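Supplementary Note 2. Why include the ligand at all?

Several targets in our set were suspected to adopt different conformations when bound, so apo predictions alone were not considered sufficient. For every target with a known small-molecule partner we therefore ran a joint prediction. The input for pyridoxal-5'-phosphate is given below.
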Amino acid sequence: MQTLNQSLQEKANQMLKLIKSSFYNEKETKQALADFILNEEILSMNKECARFEASFAAKQGRKHAVYVSNGSVADFLLVQSLMNQGVFKKGDKIGFSALTWPTNVMPLIQLGLIPVAIDCELDTLNVSPQKLSEYISDLKGLFLTNVLGFSDDISGIRALCEQYGVVLIEDNCESLGSKVGDTLLGNFSLAATFSFFVGHHMSTIEGGMIVTDDDELHEYLVMGRAHGWDRNLSPDAQQRLRSGAKVDDFYAKYTFYDIASNFRPTEINGFIGNTQMPYWDEIVGKRADNFRKYSEAMSANQDFYQYDLSHMEIVSNFSMPIICKTPELATLYRQRFADAGVEIRPVIAGNMTKQPFYQKYVDDREARPNSDLVHANGFYFGNNPELTDEEIALLCGLLGK
Ligand SMILES: Cc1ncc(COP(=O)(O)O)c(C=O)c1O
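The joint prediction is reproduced in token form.
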């Protein structure tokens, strides 16, 4: 009998892949991109990036959006900027979702903060107010991940953070377009990050965004994205900084005000972002429709843990997590999907505290049983807007008992 690894390997070339295309409407987008490159003189960050930021901020309903080179850097820059601003200080304890992506928590370690992993609920895969309440009195901040288009009671989480003076920020890299009530995920906090890596809701090949309504944080983000200089700030902000530091015009362009790096995107990414923005509703809507069909199919099968997302107006994810009740069932369903030529993978990266990098740098052996169970018994397959009816039917069929 073939092992799971062998059948995964053999089917790799004929698979229903997790990532179906580089962009939505790929052919037209690539043609437009080729024309743009041929005709555009400036390809470093310029007006296309600025236009993408403005339309993203407007669509998300936030005052500011800062475009960067990827979602990981968006996470890093947000934390760095909060430290530059004095909101977080070295040694502060910052909560995060145990079930997340490594570059969500790595910046906390890199920047001398103390990460505190919070377990998820099995019916939402997200941190709940109940789980948060076990840790909240120790925390200065919470970097909450909205996992795979889902959320728990995020209004309750926000209320708890307000009550305890905990600064809430969201990693929304997996949840563009999902809504609780009439509020988009990414709008429950001081600031939120997004990823535009291929396969995420909207792709700019690589790319990330940080949104906020806070003018001061926005200035720190803009400086932190590019060397710590003031060149991308408003004339008023430049004037304020230059007179504060007593810098004359000769030195102004080469004065560096805070800790930074170079996290800029290119005009190529900005241009792609502008081609994809008009598809936002279509992309989110189709993923939400697919999610509804997957949910209906899985709800008839008691081999899986069921989700309770009734509080969510829109659930739009880029892949569908399935958590089996036992490890044996997980083996059975993973094999079934692999045999049908459907690419699957673990659910994000499991319990972060079990990852080698975390164990190397953080002394934390506390149990997070639900995140462990998601890792041990889970898998996910793709949800993208260009799946055919036939493909959706195949995937729903595989979810049957
Ligand atoms: C929750 C979360 N945060 C951050 C990232 C990093 O985004 P990027 O791949 O654009 O670096 C990801 C990537 O998938 C993610 O899932």
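The mean pLDDT is 96. The pocket of pyridoxal-5'-phosphate is lined by residues 70-72, 75, 100-101, 103-104, 145, 171, 173-174, 195, 197, 208 (CB under 6 Å). Comparable summaries for the other entries are listed in the accompanying table.
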